[in-house]
Specification:
Structural class: mainly alpha
Number of helices: 15
Order of helices and strands: HHHHHHHHHHHHHHH
Shape: globular
Radius of gyration: 19 Å
Largest sheet: none
Number of strands: 0
């Protein structure tokens, strides 16, 4: 059961890892805020259509959780994506993706601050080991390169903090389907991005893209919308509900490794220390997954294990909603 659940965050992080180089190439024609807004306007339309077909119009009403949905949508969708695209103007895709690997630690700290749940020492330790491996991949064993990030690094710290809050929030919506949670938070985030984009265009901070520019980045937009904003986010929120926020967040360590692999496919030749770092990251993720599997007796009923598993469901609200 948990092995199948792990496939969801894995799909998400692989899709996002490829997306960094894709978005970086699109930024040559469209500015970060307008690119992000165009991406999520299209993605929101797709998500709403799917939600209407599967769950009906009632699913579009957040009810008593409107405020929470809006906050998570603005912080998670708008905050993470806008800041990430802005950071890509200041640093290379593989450098920006390094910061995404801090998501497991950030998510556990957010959970600690929000719910008073202390991170498990083993899980926190393996997160740091995986992050060390990612650091070796990106820096080639030298920390000198980290000092070159500047503004881009600060933006990514804010972006990852926003995504950590969003990931923790997703685990608290156990009574909603991942599709409903993704769609409603995407709508809130898209509305915020659209308002910010219109304001930025009006004061001259950026310029609305010409039709020719949008046509030129159609392949990148198609990938970013279908894979990055629809399939990956749906898979991510499904994984968070089934594995818990802390466990799902561990998979974010694979984002920079995937980005690095894309760069290799484009002709980059890695050094041995980088290959060692990738191996360390993967080993830490596998160890974390094995260490957090529930230990049950052979005679235990599968149904009882699924309901009482304290790791698969990490938040009290999620438990009460089931």
């Amino acid at each position: 059961m948990r092995s199948r659940a792990a496939a969801y965050p894995l799909i998400a992080v692989l899709g996002w890892g490829v997306m960094f180089p894709v978005l970086a190439s699109a930024l040559h024609r469209v500015d970060p805020l307008n690119l992000t807004t165009a991406r999520y306007l299209l993605a929101a339309l797709v998500l709403v259509a799917i939600l209407l077909l599967r769950e009906g119009a009632d699913a579009l009403r957040p009810g008593a959780r409107t405020a929470e949905v809006v906050v998570l949508g603005v912080v998670g969708f708008a905050g993470f994506n806008v800041l990430t695209n802005l950071a890509l103007e200041h640093a290379a895709p593989q450098q920006v993706s390094l910061f995404v690997a801090t998501t497991p630690v950030i998510t556990q700290l957010v959970r600690w601050a929000r719910d008073g749940v202390r991170p498990k020492p083993l899980l926190l330790g393996l997160s740091l080991v995986a992050l060390l491996g990612v650091g070796l991949v990106i820096t080639r064993g030298s920390l000198a390169g980290l000092g070159q990030f500047g503004v881009g690094g600060l933006m990514m710290i804010g972006a990852v903090l926003g995504w950590g809050i969003y990931t923790h929030g997703a685990s608290r919506f156990g009574g909603w389907s991942p599709l409903r949670f993704t769609t409603l938070t995407a709508l809130a985030g898209t509305a915020a991005m659209l308002a910010a984009s219109i304001a930025a265009d009006a004061v001259g901070w950026q310029h609305a893209p010409a039709a020719a520019d949008l046509v030129a980045v159609t392949p990148q937009l198609a990938y970013a919308v279908i894979v990055g904003a629809v399939i990956a986010v749906l898979a991510w929120n499904t994984g968070v509900q089934r594995l818990g926020a802390a466990n799902a967040a561990l998979f974010m360590n694979l984002v920079p490794v995937t980005t690095f692999a894309v760069q290799i496919a484009r002709g980059y030749r890695p050094e041995p220390v980088e290959l060692v770092g990738a191996a360390v990251t993967i080993a830490a993720l596998v160890a974390a997954n094995l260490a957090n599997r529930p230990r049950t007796r052979a005679s235990s009923l599968p149904a009882a294990s699924a309901v009482t598993d304290p790791i698969a469901v990490t938040d009290r609200e999620a438990v009460s909603a089931r």
